[in-house]
Design a protein that fits this description.
It contains five helices and nine strands. The chain is of the alpha+beta class. The chain folds into two domains: about 130 residues, TATA-Binding Protein, CATH 3.30.310; about 60 residues. Strands 1, 2, 3, 4, 5, 6, 7, 8 and 9 form a nine-stranded antiparallel β-sheet that branches. Strand 4 and strand 5 form a beta hairpin.
Length: about 210
Amino acid sequence: MGVTILQQFPIVENRTGPSTIELLTKRILALGAVQQGQYLVDCETYMSVPQLGAQRTVHVLHNSEQPATVFSILETGTKTIPLAADGLFDLLMMKMSNFYTSKKQKAESKGPRFEIGDFCVKLGTVTISSNFKGILVEVEYRACLVPSMCWELIKEFLQGFLGSTVQSAPPPYLANRMQENYTPIDTIHQYLEHFTHYRKSVGMRQ
């Protein structure tokens, strides 16, 4: 486990989602990467029923990198509470169906996973309720745990195969945590931010 950065990659005109993944696959392989299976991150969102009073939202996420862990993020107005639990949490949410109802907008990012030196790269096709929304690239630098110590290196690596789409500043979520030790829940927060953005965006072609 190292520091992870999530980066959206724009779909250029006349190019589909699969062909964009193919393009990025060729670029990362040209750098000497080796494909190591597939990955999946998913998110289901639940809303509290009116009888509970103030609106509460629970996001439940799974990451194939941590298969035994269920991540959840509870939003209550201005407060956000993260939680890492085991697989029984999914059963708990099912038993709480009288209090929390699913929005039926399951978000997923899945695709090929590559390794190159100390980097792990994942090229994700993002779907919301099975509708294609965009491309997410995840890059993890496994030799470091403090974002401020490796951001410049990760940025340079990202620019090497994503080009000018890479921002010069770290993602907003990480910008406030550059001196803190990075943990898996930080990756989950980044995915949730992107999934929330994609849910609000208009539909895109396959």
